[in-house]
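FORM 7B: Structural annotation worksheet

SECTION A. Query
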Amino acid sequence: MPRIRCRWQISPILGVKTVRLAFLILALGIVAMPLRAEVTGVLQPLRAVELRSTVNGRVTFIIEPEGTVVSSGAVVAEVDASVQRARVALAEVVAGAKGAVTRAEELLKQAEFRLERIARARAQGAAQSWEVAVAEQAVAVAQADIGVAEDELSRRRAELGLELATLEEFTIRAPFDATVLNVAVDPGAIVDTSTILVELGALDVLQATAFVPVEWATALSGATDLSATLESGQPVTARLRALDPRIDPASRTLRLLIELPNADGTLRPGEIVTLQDPR
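SECTION B. Predicted structure
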């Protein structure tokens, strides 16, 4: 076996172990190549929500099928609100009843007319001062009765607003422009406030969480874009959304979030994306 002669300049920083490793590589003919890691993540909607009802009851409407695109505020589910609609109808009648206010206003007119007559009689010496005082008190009471009637009418109108707001709770609406990802119940199902009705997701931008080697930290510092590859092999550029400054002590990894634009809808949630080593 031919012997290998080498002349070494040993740095104190490298040490004896490094020299032995270099000698072994030369002796065995091994070519040292830098290791480059690849990390994968699963694409998910950047915004996703599981919609539930805030009231218990029977489902009368549910949006179908999965894949339906909905706009913000669109109705995606309804719970039977027949009883609540009856409450609203009753509250509307009560809130529209102005009889008490009208009666108080007429009583005030009578009290003011009586006070005027007594005041004229007093001026002619035909009435006593105490009679004027009593008439003035009657006017003040009639005015107060109008205030009470108006306050009661305001309270009834507020109750109507409360009943209308409660009625709205029976209708579940999309909180943002989204796509229906999952319809969890059927019409006629009895649900409570813990039951998931519909899952929605905004698919115009997808995100993925990945755990990368701590050695990537320097290369990722200040970076905004990362090279990545889809399952199909198509190369894409992902935007670095966030990098967790904490290192997992067990795996020696950092958690990062990336985003991929998906305006054309070609990317699908659940697809695996592979991040390339940025070093």
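SECTION C. Observations
Residues 1-35 have pLDDT under 50 and may be disordered. Residues 129-168 form the longest helix (40 residues).

SECTION D. Sign-off
Analyst initials: ____
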